[in-house]
Each structure stands twice: as structure tokens, then as C-alpha cells.
## 1
Amino acid sequence: MGLLYLFGLVTLVSCSRGTDAPPTIVVPPHVETRTTPPAPPAADSAPLPHIDSKRAFQYTREVTAFGSRYMGSENHKKLERYILDHLQGDQVEDDAFTADTVEGKFPVRNIIAKFPGTRDGIIVILGHYDTVYPLRNSGFVGANDGGSSTAILLEYANQLRGKKRDGYNVWLVWTDGEEAVKTWSDTDSLYGTRHLAEKWEKDGTLKKIKALMVMDMIGDADLNIDRDTNSTPWLLDLIYAAAERLGYQSHFYAREGAIEDDHLPFVKRGVPSADVIDLDYGYNNVFHHTAQDTMDKLSPKSLEIVGNTILETIHLLDQR
Ligand SMILES: [Zn+2]
């Protein structure tokens, strides 16, 4: 989900000169102060990443087909098993606890898959797999909101397993209880990540995290990833640089605003974090948290754009 507080549309302001005078173009004199030519930028010859977007889309379809997957539901349990079935042979851990909410107690289970690297430090990719509790009887299936984030992480696991990374450790976290059970607030939301951030603060994990990125609502066929002002600016810039290298930059950061999502508990503890989210789902975000959040609104191309961009961002982080 991700709650939107303030969204400023980027407006283009055209300059009017206000006179009939022809424009004057000032050409600065050529100044050459260097005695040696500048070194060319370091060429990055690494192959571009390429996820299997058809497979990621199929995962989204299968996850969505479970129906509503709110905390404590039978479909939620089925989805837990589905995720674990796809992580066989991987190093998997649980962060399971009981959340005390205004709607009662719920079991919450963050699922963590760890892929080792050669460098000290961890890159964490998160995405929530629960769907909205208050919409449990509304026909809501969360293809984009819950489905796309679950699926892209499963595809990342396919890309990461089988070889020790030449770079940082990468941890994938399917987060639970991201959604509010009644009305979004600091205490009714982000149940899973608030617990995980506290746990990782106590056990020293947070200090090892080089970057943390949240995937949320990344399947919209009309993909516009928002520039979230709660995120860490240098990490957003790095994601943009990765998108540029792949030629995807037109899908990033046309809008800017403050978004509340699973990254916040980590942002508050000083972890470099970015929310990767498209909160313009249908005109004026009309499909968000409605029964219209269905597969026909999504595109494998969007999963590919985000999927490849974040893998490239991991590559850029490895180089730093
Ligand atoms: Zn949501």
C-alpha cells in the first residue's frame, strides 16, 4: 500500500520573455584550463540484468488467484506455503510473532531468504504479501497491491540462487502486516517491519545494511515510480542512474511526495532506504484498495522495468 501524505505534481513552467526582442544567446568563451585531457568515465562492462518477466507475471497471477490474503486468513497460510515452496534449498528464516491490534490478535510472519555474497554488508529488498484486512469481504484480490511485490521477490530469488554473489549479501524479505487492520496510523500499519526493524536494531543487523529497498505496487501497466521524499536521496539517485543505464528513466520520478510504507521503521533508525512504488494506479489512483486491483491492469513489462532496475541498482551498490 503506502500512504500518501502530500503529493506535489511536477509542473513545467514555460518562460515568457515579455518583449519582442529576439532572444540573445550568450556563448561563453572557450576556456581550457586542463593541461591533460580528462580521464574517460570508468566503463561498466558488466552485462545488463534481465529478469524473466513472464515468470514474474505468472507468479503474480498465481498469488492473486488465492484471493484476499489478509492477516490471519486461510488464504494467507496458503500463500506462506506457496512462498516457502518456491524457496526450497535456500537459506530461509522466519520473523514470526503475534500482533496486538484494534481488531484483535493476529499471527504475523515475515519470511526472509538470505543469499550470501563475498563482501561484508547486506542489501535488503522487501515487499509485502498481506492484503488489506478491512477489504476482506469486498472482492479485493490485490493483484498489484500485495501480488506484484510478492512475485518480484520470488523472481529475484531465482536470479540470486545457485551462486555466491561477487558483492554484498542480499536478503529478500516478504513482509507481513504492512496494511492497516482498520485505519492507517503509526500504530495501525507496518506490523511486520516495525517488529523486524526493532529486532534487527537489537541484534546488530541494522548496522550492516548498506541499502534497503521496498517494492510495492510495481505492476501497473502505466508505470510511474514516484520519488518518495521519506526515502534516502542518494539511494533514489542511484536507482535513477540504474534506470538510465537500462533506458527506463521515463518511468521514474515524474512526481514527488512523501509516502508511508514498509521502509519507514528503517528510515527512522538511520538505514539508507528507498520506497519503490507507483501510487498513481489508474487515473487519480482509483484502483488502489478497490476490487478493481486485478491482473488486467498489470503488465509483465512493468515487472521487467522495476525488476531489472533494482538488480542493476544492486550491481551499482556492489561497486561503491
Ligand atoms: Zn495497500
## 2
Amino acid sequence: MIYESDTLKVQRHDGGIAELTFDLHGESVNKFNQATVDDLKAALSALEAEQGISGLLVTSAKPVFIVGADITEFTRMFKAGKETIIEFAGHNSANLNRLEQLPFPSVAVINGYALGGGFELCLACDFRVMSTAARVGLPETKLGIVPGWGGTVRLPRIIGVDEALMWIAGGAEQRADAALKVGAVDALGAPEELRKVAMVTLQRAIDGKLDWRGRRDAKRSPLPLNDTEAMMAFFTGKALIAQQAGRNYPAPVAAATAVEQARGMGLEDALAVEANTFAELAQTDVAQALVGVFLSDQLLAKKAKGWSRQADKPVQRAAVLGAGIMGGGIAYQSAFSGIPIKMKDIAQAGIDLGLKEANKLLSKRVARGRMSPEKMGETLNRIEPTLSYDGFGQIDIVVEAVVENSKVKQAVLAETEKQVAADTVLASNTSTISITRLAEALERPENFCGMHFFNPVHAMPLVEVIRGAKTSDATVGRTVAYATAMGKKAVVVQDCPGFLVNRVLFPYFDGFSKLLRDGADFQAVDKVMERWGWPMGPAYLLDVVGIDTGVHAGAVMAEGFPDRMRNDFKTAPEIMFEAGRLGQKNGLGFYEYPSDKKGRPVKTATAVAYELLAGHVAERREFTPEQIVARMMVPMATELARCLEEGIVGTPAEADLALLYGLGFPPFRGGVFRWLDAIGMENFAAMARACEGLGKSYELTEGMQAKLANNETWYG
Ligand SMILES: NC(=O)c1ccc[n+]([C@@H]2O[C@H](COP(=O)([O-])OP(=O)(O)OC[C@H]3O[C@@H](n4cnc5c(N)ncnc54)[C@H](O)[C@@H]3O)[C@@H](O)[C@H]2O)c1
């Protein structure tokens, strides 16, 4: 043994082969936390001092190789100032440089995920062999930063600028065949063969058959591009990256710029450019938000695991009632995730529609080469369409997705309860009706909860799991486990009108209605909110959701929270609804939707909506972008704070993720609470004051006032 610690060890094998093995004790994965970085430094000293070593294997004792830096250490470090951040990058960069300069060849044995810093370590080795089951990549730009341990320097010098820019700016995980094709790795092996492949590679290098010194020189040298080649590569590359990333995500372009700035430099200078870019980006609100989202995601996954442990049994067979838009989507998602599902409707036409929808989604996957026709057949076979309750006695969970009518739902649920086993979980996909109230029709209300999917089910990551007054922990547990098995993010919330997501969406829509009432142009509002980061503005969103659905749900919310959600004027969505404009579904809403050649709806503004509104709204008036953002976002934020204060949702992190995954809240802002932390409660209070007189939704909640008075943040 040459070196051993709680994070890694270096052994000496026959023939002078050394093996550096990462194995972070007490963790399921390897990551570069501070201890690992320190230990690597010591291990390299031991290796440098060891006599008679001819070659080095770099391996992992875990199913993953190294998943990257320890992101839990980022938040504090990013706030510590530029010098500290550069120092952080410098420590491990120095390690990797020393690894690269050892007086014998090295081979990284990539047995599983090698991401971020984990992959940068591999790039510092002379050769890389990769398991066919592994993934590599540099996902840093997804966190709003750039690789900080030589990734932007070594990767373009190994695989060429064009590919490297795409890898770094896109941040995607790469499969083994793709990595081999571009030369990011030198050989592949099936998991059980990988070590043999690595040994052969290393031996050939030791024997002088592979030019490992030449490889090192290439990585330490300027990029081999003349000015014209460089201009072409960076000019077109950066334009494409900027277009794909969008104006709110600066890291991808910054990464490309760092590669460009360092193109004529040797390793040390190029690393300094990279470290500087890393430090500058790390200090931005965008990086704070994206790192925050990553950490919140981990918290959510942990909570889901905790809930799943409370499930008394896993879901092996499911059923869905209603084969409409949502029922069909739920059946598809369950079958796609490997869980057989009965799809029951009262009408054959409904079933045909549900099956057609599943078929369409699967055919798309097959056409894109993302699924084999056999797999498609297997998936479809997992959906069992039915008009009867036959076999419901063996079902672990039934998701009700019939029409949004509480009498119909109560009748259907009570009828179903008689057909299922005593411990079957019943869940309703209602978007507005109180779970506690629906439970009144049931004999076993403890087995009942809400399971609120979002439309379209296959694309929207969120499922709200709603606890009624009598819902048991085991019921919540089984439902969360099912949502997780379907690849969804489950957020557990308490029952109230609108639950969490719709409860905060409708005050936002009210903000929109009041803006229009006071003379704003709906297109201008859409434009401002889209620039703010929303995937679509409120008018467009209402059209997509369905104006009838919006008006109906709005009425439920007004009944539930009259003090702040009941309007004393006719709202713009009501005006559209009364004119028979239901949104995208009938091609007429705030906008109109004629079809293009491929049959896709094209959003088109016409005079009709303006004419309809004319008699009900004030004369057209300009609002500044700041006024529009304040009028839209203050009511959403105050309502979300209220939900947290009332215990509807457990933590700011869960609340923020629910909006990201359920509504498409802009990820670069991290969620409402992260946004409040970024702008500060003082500024938020000023925004709210500027909206004085617009109603209770524009007043700070008690919790907000306390944060303001105590100068506290939501994330602490
Ligand atoms: N569409 C959305 O955007 C959306 C989003 C989230 C939640 N939801 C909720 O999901 C539920 C379903 O909505 P949808 O948009 O899929 O409606 P839909 O009208 O498309 O489908 C409802 C289906 O239920 C069937 N049905 C009616 N009574 C039934 C019964 N007794 N047994 C079995 N099937 C019966 C109908 O035949 C129809 O096929 C509603 O509660 C709705 O609020 C909808």
C-alpha cells in the first residue's frame, strides 16, 4: 500500500503497476469534496516518491467513477469572494497537473458516471477506457458555472474545438459510443472486461507502443488552429450556443469564450483564464439559483425516499379511471415506466382516445430511434383498456381522472371502493376539489389522497400528492412511491383549494386580469413576463390551459379565498369565455391558432380579442416592465409565502421546485423564494408598496414582514 485514507488509496501491484482507487467512505458515490482533494494531494506526493513505478491505473471502488465536485460545498464557497473561489479551483487543478506530469503513463478506468471534476480527472490521465454502461460529461454550465479543473482547456485539445464546445456548452451526459467516436475515450469494454482492456492499454503505453508523452504535449500546447479556422469555429459555435442557451443563461457562452481566449496559450495560462471565468460566474445570482435548484432536488429526492419507505407495499399493478387527456397520459406514463395499468372508462370512445394518445407518444419515440418497435409493443401491452371493474381486486393503486365534478367524482370513488381490496389506495387527479371533501363519500378515507398530475403528463415532471384530513402516512407513502417510479417529482402538500401550484397560479392570473382592467395590452404583458423568464406569458398560458378550465378553477379559488381572490369586475378570461373563446383547444382565445402545414397551431394576434375587451377595460395605457412584473409576481409570492406559513408545503425548497416543475417557473431564478432572496425583502416590499390599493394579494404576509424586520433570507 503506497497511500490510504478515508477517500482513496494507492496500491502497488506486480510489474510496478500502481492503482489509485477512489472510495469515499460513508457515501454511495465518489465526489471531490474537500477531503478528497486534500487526500489526492497527499497520494500524489506518495506516488511521486515511490520508486520503480511503471504505470498507473485510476479506478473507482464504487459503481460510479466520480460524479463531480461536492456541490453541497458550493453555496458557501461561492459567496466567499473571487480570490477564495480561484483558490478553490486552483487546489484540485494543481493535483490534476501533477497527475498529468507523473513520470509514467496513466489510464483512467471509467466504470460508471464520470461527470464534471470526475471527468476532468480522466482528461488529465493519458488514456481513458470506458465501460459501455458508463456516462461521461461536463455538466457545469447547467449549474451556471464552467468546468474549473481544466475541462475547458484539455477537452478541446483532445477532441477538437467544435465537439468540445458542444459538450461543454450543452452539459449533456455522453454515452460510451459517442465518447469513443469523438476520441474523448480511447477504448470501450463491457463492464466485466473493462479492467482487462485498461491493463492492455497501460501495458502498451509502458512498452512504448502508445505515445503518452505526445499526448501530454498536445494538452499543454496552444490549440492547433490557424486564425481562419479559429474564427470559423468560435464565431459559428458561439452564435449557436447563445441561441440555444438563451439570454438568461450566461455560462455556456462564457465557457466558449474561455476556450477562445486561451486558444493560443499553454496549460498554465489557459487554466488561469478558466479559473477566472469560473470565479466570475460562481458569484452570479444565476449560479446561486441553479446550484440551489440542484440541492433542493436532492432534498426532494430524499424526502420522496423517506415517504416511499412508509409505503406498506410497492405498486405493482395500477388502474386509472377515465381515459381522457389526463387518464390517457397517466396510463402511458405508468406503462412506459414498466407498471401495468388498467384504463377504465364508461365509453368506448374515451378508451379509443386514450389508447390513441399513448400510441402517438410511443410512435414518436420509435420514429426518433429512442425506442424499438418491440419495446413499444411491450409498453402498449401494459395498458389494459376496460369498461368494467373486473380484476380491480388485485390493484395496488387506483388514480381517478374523470370529469372535474365533485358529485361525479364522489360517486365514482365510492363505487370503486367497493370493487378494490381493503388496502388499495385511491387517489384523485382533481385539480381543484378538496380531498377532504371527496373523502366524505368513502368508507376508508385513510386510503385516499390527491395525486395531481400536470398536463401533458409525460412532459410535466411534477406530481402534487395531497393529504386530506384523514389520509394515512402509508397512503401518502405508496402514492409518492408510485409517482417516483413513474419518473415524477412528488411534492407532498396539505389539502386546500388549488392545493399548492394552482393556489399560487390564480393570484398571478388575477394580477393579469387587473392589469388588463387598468388598460394594459395583453401582448405587452406576455412579452414582459416571457423576458422575465416564463416559458409563456399569462395570456398565452391561459389559452394553452384552456380558458374554460381557467374560469372554472378561478371560481373555485374565489370561493375558497374570497378575501383576496374574488374580483368585483368582469375579468378578461371571463370575457373570452363568454364569447366562446376557449383557447388553443378551439383555436380562439386571447390569440387565435390557425394550423400550419404540419397541422401545428400557430399563435396569431388578431383584433378580435381587443374588440371583445374594449367595452370592459380602461383606455389603453403603458405600463413599464417593472410595473408589470410587480403586478404579476407580488400576488404569486405573497400567496406562496402564505402556503408556507400555513404548512400547506413543508419548505421553501419544495415550494420553489413545485413551481419549477409544475409551472415552468424560470430555473435561472431558482423559484419564488430564491428570487426573493436574490432581490432582498426590502426591494420586494418596495414592489408591493408600488401596487398599493390593488388588494390583499399585494400586501406582505406576516411571515414576509418578519423576514423583512429581522433582515432574514428564506433559505437561511
Ligand atoms: N386537462 C388538464 O389540464 C388537467 C390537469 C390536471 C388535472 N386535471 C384533472 O383531471 C381530471 C380529468 O381531466 P381530463 O382533462 O382528462 O378530462 P377529459 O374530459 O379529457 O376526460 C375525462 C374522461 O373520464 C371519463 N369518465 C367520465 N365518467 C367516468 C366514470 N364514471 N368512470 C370512468 N370514466 C369516466 C370520460 O368518458 C372521459 O373519457 C379532472 O379532474 C381534471 O380537473 C386536468
## 3
Amino acid sequence: MRVNTLKRVAVAFALALPGAAIATVVAAPAAHADGCYTWNRTLSQGRSGDDVRQLQIRVAGWAGYRDIVENDGRYGPKTAAAVKRFQQAYGLRADGIAGPQTFAKLYQLQDNDCTPAHFSYTELDNGCGGSGWSGGPLSANQTKQNALRTMWKLEALRRSLGDKPLNVSSGFRSRACNNQVGGASDSQHLYGNAADVTSRTSSLCQVARGARNNGFSGIYGPGYPDHDDHVHVDSRRENNSDSSSNTTSWSAPDCGVGAGND
Ligand SMILES: [Zn+2]
């Protein structure tokens, strides 16, 4: 009896196997392409939705000279132009339409926590030892979202510089941390909106000049007081929570960046 029962179980298992194998094969293409976010339709001008907004975060660094990509969930001409620059930068067919090839590249670039390949939340939350994104004027979640967009801009800058590594020496700072390091009272660092960048392989002027093309509306570098050993980049134009107007502010006089030399 015992043997029989086992045999029946074995037969049932064997019968179930082919079906299970087929189910696995069929399911594979529909499985999530990525641990962070998966796009389910091709996006082009006129589309809107959260999938567009997710795309806009990731192409924010391909805004073009002195411009930004609005994170509004509407696929307009600026989003299309940014997608096109992204495609060009990675050797894809550059049509400004986000389809399978564009998404495949984004999946390849993004980690499971949605950060781009060469930057991490840990690196951006190192203000005075890491504070878990709290202690600033925004909620921890909003702050982290800003930091994510900052990282995608940095990834674009890094790519534009020829895949040369960039180091973030200061990202988000809580108020306490900002006071400790003597940051400006309404610093973009408080919002997760800024990064101080150094590089061993690119000059600071290359970083400062390059950043003008990667969606950064605040740039301070060599020649600006206290900025001879790093380049500060931020997204002040997109910050509606700070006390400054949403305008571009660049100054790296030693690099020909700023007032009259843009
Ligand atoms: Zn800074």
C-alpha cells in the first residue's frame, strides 16, 4: 500500500511537471523586467501618467543646455528631447520615443531601489554621518525623491564625461548637519536637492561646465568662494519649497561658468 501510494504521488508529480515547465516558459517574458519599476507601454508625446513621471525622473539629466525636464507626468517636447539625448548617449536609435530598447537600457542602469548604477542612497545621505533623510524642511520621503532625481542627473553627467567616476562628498543634510558644516541657511542640501561633487579623473571645471547640460540649475565651482575643492550642483529651479525664486544660478568664474560666460 505504501509503495502504491508513493507511486501514485510520483506519477501525479510527473504529470504535473510538463505543465509547470510550460507555465514557467510562458510566464518569463511577462515577468517584471526589473526590481524597481517596469514600464508596460511605449511612451511618446501626448502620453501622460505615472509611467511618464517615472521616465522623467530617469531622463532628468538629459535636459539639454540650461534646461530642465519637468516632473509633471506629461510627455511633452522637452521630455521627448531628453529621451532622444538619452538614446544618443547610450547608442540607441534616437527617436524620442520610449519603447522597449529605451526601457531595457533603463532597467540595466537602475538598481532594485531605483537608484542609477553608479550612485546610491547611502552616498547621498552622508551629510554628517547619515540621518535617514529626516531633519530637513521636507518629509523624509520627499527628500529621498529629490535625492533620487539628483542621482539620475549625476548619472547623466558621469556618462557625459565619458563614464568617469564622480564622488559625492556631501548630499542631503539635516538642519543640524547643515549648521554644523556652515551651509547656507536655505541650502538646497536641506532638500535632498544638491550634491557636492569631486572627481579623480575629471577636472572640476569639466564637471562644472558639463553640469550645465544635465539639468542642474544651481552650479558653484572653482573661483566661487569656498568652492575650489568641489563643484556644488543642485536643482533649485525645481524646488518650490525653498525661499528662492525658481531661477538658474551658476558661478564657477575660473571655469568660465556664470555671469556673462554661460
Ligand atoms: Zn554644496
## 4
Amino acid sequence: MSIVTRFAPSPTGYLHLGHAFSALFAWHRARDASGRFLLRLEDIDPTRCRPEFAAAILEDLAWLGLDWDGEVRVQSQHFAEYRATLDGLAARGLLYPCFCSRADIRQSAAAPHTPDGTPRYPGTCRGLSQDQRDTHISAGEPYALRLHMDRALAALGDAATLTFEAAGEGAIRCHPQQFGDVVLARKDAPASYHLCVTHDDALQGVTLVTRGEDLRQATHLHRLLQVLMGWPAPRYAFHPLLTDASGRRLAKRDHAATLRELRAQGRSPADVRALASSPRTSD
Ligand SMILES: [Zn+2]
């Protein structure tokens, strides 16, 4: 079967070397096997994503010499599809509305954190009656939609057999319960990263999901969503995260060099590809 990979950045800033490394990793996995390489813009967050960054991503990747197959999928143009997926889960009783604020959740318990870095949800709104939900909703209170994790696991039947296949590692047992009742539709966006990424990987026929080690734990949840929705299981390949000279992970907040800056300094695409393919990395 032909390999299909994708690079799926969020247009919240300019691409830096860490992105280039990640994009090249996915691109090589596809191209070296005569497979397809797709580009997707994960722009569901209206407060952080900007069109000029989206345009810059396409331009920077093309400058770097990366080509992609087919049209770029832009998630913000497909909210109706994510809505339909949410409706399907809701009809099976697997979602519930949550009216809590972030402060409510922080204060509610010394809850362990999820792999997303947020406190695990204590389930405050899980037991609300339909009347109580209707009262909140008709009062115009914003709400998120959360996955009812216990029911989701029960819906799997034999959850103990849930695994994902990682390159060079074999089958890895999944523990999605570490996410608790995870948000699948945010208060401020009609979907969530976890929902959209699994939806789109299935829709686009991605067979090999390449991602940084920082998203390894999310994969446990993604397998659960895939099984719940009847979507196929892609294989996974995890890559280390690029670090700077002091060993810290490259990130926008650290003012990591953007491809634009490197380009302005006179670096060629070949220079940048070399920088991004023989990086200092760490797990
Ligand atoms: Zn709540």
C-alpha cells in the first residue's frame, strides 16, 4: 500500500527550524517511498490563527523545496464536517456540555494533569440533568463538549486491546483514560485539535502519521476516537524535537529562528534543509 503522510501546522506564526525538520521528516517518508505528501492547515483557533501566517507557511515550504499533493486542506473551512462527527458522538450519549470556566476546573481539585497540560477534568458537569443543561444553554452560557470517557471506553467493548503501531516499536498499548473527559468542542471554537486531526487523517487517507515526541501521548486518545468513529488506524512515526544550543526545545516563544529570518540572512534552501536535517535533537 502506498504511503500517505502529511504536515499539518497551525498558522499561529512563522515556521521555524523545528517545523522545517518536522515537514522534511514527513515529506521524506512519503517521497522516498513514492508516496503522497499532503499539507493541512490546522487553523480552528480563531484567536491565534491568522491568514498572513497561512500564506507564509505555503510560501516558506515552497521556498524550502517541499512540494505537496492535491489541495491544501484548511480546517476552518470544514466546521460542518466536524459538527457532524460531534453530532454522531452526541447521539450515542458519548458527549456532554460543560459550562465550567478554566478557573472552576483549576480550583476544583488537586487533579492530575492530562498530557495536554491541563488539569484533568473532575466531571463537574457530567451529572447535570437535561433540565439543568437546558437552563444553562437557554441563559446563553458558553459551553464546551466533553467526551464521556467511561462510556467511550465501554463502547469499545474490549478496550484492553486498543493499541497503536509505531515505526520501529511495534504495537503500543493505549491508555486514553489519562485524558479524562477531554474537550472535543471548545467554548471558543466549534471543534478541538484531537477531533479535527483524527477526522482529517481518516478523510484524507493518511496511512503514516509523523509527529514529534510531544504528541506521543495524544496518540493514545486519537486511537480511541478512531475506533469510536470506525476510522482506519494509521501507523505512527515519532521524531525527536529539535533543540537549541542549550538543549531547549525550539519554540516560537523562545524566538527560534524563523525560516524567513534565515532566508533574510542569506541562507539558501539547501542550507536550511541541512540545518533542519542534521539537528541537535532530544527526546
Ligand atoms: Zn463543567
